[in-house]
User: What shape does this take?
Amino acid sequence: MADDVIISYRGVKKAFGGNVIYDGLDLDILRGETITVIGGSGTGKSVMLKMLIGLLRPDAGHVWFDGAEVTALHEDGLIPVRRRIAMLFQGAALFDSLTVAENIEYPLREHMKMNHDERAERVREVLDLVGLPGIEAMKPAELSGGMKKRIGLARAIAVRPEVIMYDEPTTGLDPINTSRINELIVRTREALGVTSIVVTHDMASAFKVSDRIAMLFNRRISAVGTVSEISRSDDEMVRSFIEGRPAYSPSFPPQKAP
Assistant: This one.
């Protein structure tokens, strides 16, 4: 495997009952890049993220992370992989009963040996990075949707991950907060040098944050390229998706699992 490839999907197949999600998915993700995965609802964008950390297993094929075959690891072997990968969930997934500081400290208590002062300093540091200093004592119920997403990102980066996975990070946000999240994705990569995987159907966001864009269509990666290459693509499915034309459909007629 090439030195600059940190994540690799090879020949991945996955079905849920009779619904085939992947039938030979292949994708390499480069160390330090931001790659955005686009595609219609039900094409398996979020399934890719869950496979990387072993929450879902492929029916066939392989998923590699930094030289380790994730698909061959048992639960104990997945722990060190998960420590290096953070995920920003679509709904931020904050604990309502905890303060902002306690939410951010949660993974620090679970996975890192830090004393109280070190945790407090890390909380201040990541809140500054996401542009929300001084709100440690607030509860999630007091936050707007955009603020919750930013706190979710602060919690994700608090553990100093090597990879951040963003699952529909701008869904449900107004244009101003969407722009803020896009800027934070770019700034986080620049500040921390992380590899980022963004799952979205928002093409404006994809063009803003990405080094490369990969399209899921017909149960596999049908196109991948730089922002310039994808924006100028003459592939009919890519053009239809970018332009939001009805010609695009998430997949061909449903295929039954063998």
In short: The chain has a mean pLDDT of 88.
